[in-house]
Each structure stands twice: as structure tokens, then as C-alpha cells.
Design a protein that fits this description.
single chain; alpha+beta; Cytochrome p450; 3-stranded antiparallel β-sheet; 53% helix; 11% strand; heme; Cyt_P450_sf
Length: 514
């Protein structure tokens, strides 16, 4: 996600134009020319990138292409603006906002004129197909309708909870116990990815990859998925004619993408073998004990949706992205922040020792800590939209049909106006008030337009409550028994793809609690 901002502005340009721009880019940064490059600038607030006639702020975008999420967050902070317009080559514009009233305008009150940006659909179609995360209109409405029945079913939530507890008690706890004895260093980012992927496959496809075994075996499905995401994202950096040619010839990165996608699709093909025919011939109700694919197929058939192998596989891959990548992203940042704030950790440990797995809703301080973690490190830092007709935002910003819009969730969590002057501090208490009569904490939620971590409006995340439940289970299981201690000198480097991750390993030592 962190390079979309630049390449959304460049994507449709012909190759000769791009070569011309690169030459100008060289001229701009050459020591001789750079001394004379600031003479004719278009008017722009001084805190924002310099905008040049014809080229806009292309040079600044290019300089910051590897850190676009953090860079644009800083632009909001330095300028104190809640909406920023960045100019690209030849008058192209891209608008970023962190204004809650505008977020509401986009995702709720004027939802019908904002769609997924076609560029996203274009570059991710090979991986995600016609799944819920990419489609709009009637396709989205139909899928959303019957998927909501699945995610809100108590039996499905119970299946997820049971699988999570089993994976934690059967694999994670023994692994951590061994690490305390051996004084081993673990990469917590890798461990959490194995954990969440094992759980997801058990719940979704009735299959256990066993990636969290003590030997920490190879993880070809995870590797294939990460490769597919990385290369699909890379299409933003490449003129469409070039990657399309590579795809046609099946060479280079496109060959690797095809292989990675084939690995995932072949895996899911085996998981659904015979299911469509089986459920098509049965006039029975949905198998309430079935996995996600069972429920999806039977619910789709019940809604008279044409179900074929590709449709089910597309849905399975979207299920992996929505249920795995975002969850393990939330976990790594939560444990980094908690391990760096002993007072918060002590409060959480005190609370979870008084509760059990059936009291998750009563873990108020833990819940606040999770919300606070995702405020600072939202699993999905940016949401890309396109406006389908001219519009005017509540703050007066005028948009033309076809403009790209970024909802900057990351910047919203770092807004003085929304969170106060201590917005950089990890402070769960900002979500809490003390009940003076009982002495207990009461949780004070924020509206989903101020805190759109799970989106808002009609596209609100279906797995929101499930995600909170799983994070609490993982937190309670680990922190009740162990301390997570990052290696001395470790400081994470933020890296953003579709989801927020750490750029390198997250090395930790595991210490048994007394």
C-alpha cells in the first residue's frame, strides 16, 4: 500500500513520457541543476511538497516512495491540515483525508458514488479475482449478504474460538516453554504468522498446515501468499504495458506471480473437491458444524447464486487475506507496544488472571489496549477509493469524477485534534473511565468515522468482533504465563504493504512468569 500514492499518478502514462520524466528527475537531483530548480513553483502551503508546473510534486513522491505512509502522515502533522491534495504530472490530482466528517461522507452518506479504485482491481485481479475485497455493486451486495450470515453465526464463532484455543495450548505454549528452557531467540513476527495461518486453514478449509510445529517447518502456502502480494503490489511501480508483456511471455516477476497464485489455487482446489456438487444435490440446511467453505457454498446456493470452482477459490483467497494478514499484523504491534510499556503489561496481566476464556468481554483494559495499539498501527493503513461523479466534501474540497481518494487511517491515529497532544503515547486509559462506585474500568468507544480501523458504513469489517476475540485469547494465553522481551537495541522499522508489518524480524526472548 505504501507505494500506491506515487504510482496511481503515473500508472496510465505512456513509456516515452515516463522516460522523459525520469530524465527530468535526474536533472532535478543533479548537484548543478538542483541549485537552480526552485524558481517557478506553483502555490502550495510551505509544509507540503513543492509542486512544479507540468510535474506537480512528482519529485517528492519519488524521493519518499518507500515510506509513503509515514511521509504522508508527517505531511498532515506538519501542515495541521485534515485534507491534502497532491498534484501529479499533467494536472493529475490525488486527495488524502483524515477528516472524520469526510470519512463519513465517503463510506456512508455518499457511499454509492465511491468505489474501489479500478487500479486496485486491475493489479490484484490475478490473486483476488472476484472476491469480496475487490468487487463493487451488485456482486459486492450479494456476497456481503450471505457472508454476513456466516460471520454472525454463533456456531462459526465457536469454531474459531475452539481452533484458536487448541492451537495456543497444543503448540504455542509448548513452543514458548521450550524457548524459556533453551533461552532461545524467536522471531515473533514469524511465529504469529504461522499461528494465525494454521488457525485460519483449520477454520476455513478443515485442513491443518502444521506450520507451528516445534521444528518450525517450511511454510510454502504463507510464502506463496506473501510473494503474490508483493509482486501484485509491484505492478504499481511498472507501466501496465511492461508487466502485461511479462505476463504474456510468462517471464520475470510475472512468472513468479503465476507460480505463487497457482500454489494457492491448487491448494484450495483440493480443499473444495466435490463440495459444490455435493451441496448442489442436497436440499438440506447449512451444515452448522462445517468449515467456512461448507457454509459459503451452501449459503450461496440458498441465495440462488451461481457457484463454480473459480468463485469459491476467489472467496477462499479473500478469506485468507482478510483473516490472516490483518490479524497477525495487529498481534505483532500489540505485543511490541505492551512489551515496551511495563505498566500497561502489569495492568493487563492483573486483569487476565482474574478472568478465564469465557470472560473475554469483561477484559476491559485488555480491550482498550488492543484498540490503542491499532490506533497507532492500524492493520490496513490506507484505503484507496475512486469517486464516480463530481462531488463536494463537507470541508469544501471539490472532486472531479475519476479522482483517486486515500482514506488515511494511519494519519487519523496521529491527529492532535482527534486524540490530543499526547497522540504518540501508547495510553489505553484514553479509552477508559473509572466507575467511582465500583472502581472498575468502563470502556468508552469512538465512533467508526474517527476510528475507521475496521472501516465504517456498509463495508464495515465482518470479522471485527472475531478479531477482538482472537487477539484477547492470544494475549491472555501468552501474558498469563510468559513475558515477551525484545532483544536489547531492537527497534522496529515500519513497513507497509497491504497491511502494516515490521520490515525485519521481531527477535524476542521468552521468560516464564513466576
Amino acid at each position: 500500500m505504501d507505494i500506491q500514492l506515487m504510482y496511481r499518478l503515473l500508472y496510465s502514462l505512456p513509456i516515452p513520457v515516463i522516460i522523459f520524466l525520469l530524465l527530468l528527475f535526474f536533472i532535478y537531483f543533479h548537484p548543478f541543476f538542483s541549485k537552480h530548480s526552485s524558481s517557478k513553483l506553483s502555490k502550495q502551503p510551505k509544509q507540503l511538497p513543492k509542486s512544479y508546473p507540468l510535474f506537480g510534486c512528482l519529485f517528492s513522491l519519488a524521493q519518499n516512495r518507500h515510506r509513503a505512509v509515514l511521509w504522508t502522515s508527517k505531511l498532515f502533522q506538519k501542515s495541521s491540515l485534515s485534507t491534502i491534495t497532491l498534484k501529479g504530472p499533467f494536472g493529475k490530482k490525488c486527495v488524502l483525508t483524515r477528516n472524520p466528517s469526510i470519512i463519513k461522507h465517503i463510506v456512508k452518506t455518499h457511499f454509492h458514488i465511491y468505489r474501489k479504485d479500478p487500479i486496485m482491481q486491475f493489479v490484484f485481479s490475478d490473486l483476488l479475482g472476484d472476491g469480496l475485497l475487490l468487487v463493487d455493486g451488485e456482486k459486492w451486495k450479494t456476497q456481503r449478504h450471505f457472508l454476513s450470515h456466516i460471520f454472525h453465526a454463533d456456531t462459526f464463532r465457536y469454531r474459531i474460538k475452539s481452533a484458536t484455543i487448541k492451537e495456543l495450548s497444543g503448540r504455542l505454549i509448548p513452543l514458548f516453554s521450550s524457548a524459556t528452557i533453551d533461552k532461545a531467540t524467536l522471531d515473533l513476527q514469524d511465529i504469529f504468522h504461522r499461528l494465525t495461518f494454521d488457525i485460519l486453514c483449520q477454520v476455513g478449509f478443515s485442513h491443518d498446515p502444521e506450520y507451528l510445529l516445534p521444528s518450525l517447518p517450511r511454510k510454502p502456502l504463507i510464502d506463496a501468499f506473501e510473494t503474490a502480494i508483493k509482486i501484485s503490489m509491484g505492478r504499481f511501480t511498472c507501466p501496465s504495458i511492461l508487466w502485461k508483456a511479462k505476463k504474456l511471455l510468462n517471464i520475470g516477476s510475472e512468472e513468479n506471480l503465476r507460480y505463487a497464485v497457482d500454489v494457492l489455487r491448487e491448494y484450495l482446489k483440493k480443499r473444495i473437491a466435490g463440495k459444490v456438487e455435493k451441496f448442489s444435490m442436497q436440499s438440506t440446511s447449512i451444515d452448522e458444524g462445517g468449515d467456512f467453505l461448507d457454509r459459503f457454498i451452501t449459503r450461496a446456493l440458498k441465495c440462488n447464486v451461481v457457484v463454480d470452482e473459480k468463485f469459491v477459490i476467489d472467496t477462499g483467497i479473500n478469506f485468507i487475506l482478510a483473516g490472516d494478514d490483518t490479524l497477525f499484523s495487529a498481534l505483532i504491534w500489540f505485543f511490541w507496544l505492551v512489551s515496551s510499556h511495563p505498566q500497561v503489561e502489569n495492568e493487563i496481566v492483573k486483569e487476565i488472571k482474574e478472568k478465564n476464556d469465557d470472560d473475554l468481554n469483561e477484559m476491559v483494559y485488555t480491550h482498550a489496549s488492543i484498540c490503542e495499539s491499532m490506533r497507532l498501527y492500524p492493520p490496513v493503513p490506507l484505503e484507496l477509493k475512486q469517486v464516480t461523479e463530481d462531488d463536494v466534501w463537507p470541508d469544501g474540497t471539490k472532486l472531479k469524477k475519476g479522482m483517486s481518494i486515500f482514506l488515511h487511517v494511519h494519519a487519523m491515529g496521529r491527529s492532535t485534534e482527534l486524540w490530543g497532544s499526547d497522540y504518540e503515547s501508547f495510553r489505553p486509559e484514553r479509552w477508559l473511565v473509572k466507575n467511582l462506585s465500583t472502581g472498575n474500568w468502563n470502556f468508552i468507544p469512538r465512533d467508526p468515522f474517527t476510528y475507521p480501523v475496521f472501516q465504517a458504513g456498509p463495508r464495515t469489517c465482518l470479522g471485527k468482533e472475531i478479531a477482538f476475540m482472537q487477539i484477547k485469547l492470544v494475549a491472555a494465553t501468552i501474558l498469563k504465563r510468559f513475558r515477551i522481551v525484545p532483544l536489547d537495541g531492537f527497534s522496529p522499522v515500519y513497513n507497509s504493504s497491504l497491511t502494516s508489518k515490521m520490515k525485519t524480524d521481531f527477535p524476542v526472548r521468552i521468560i516464564q512468569r513466576c
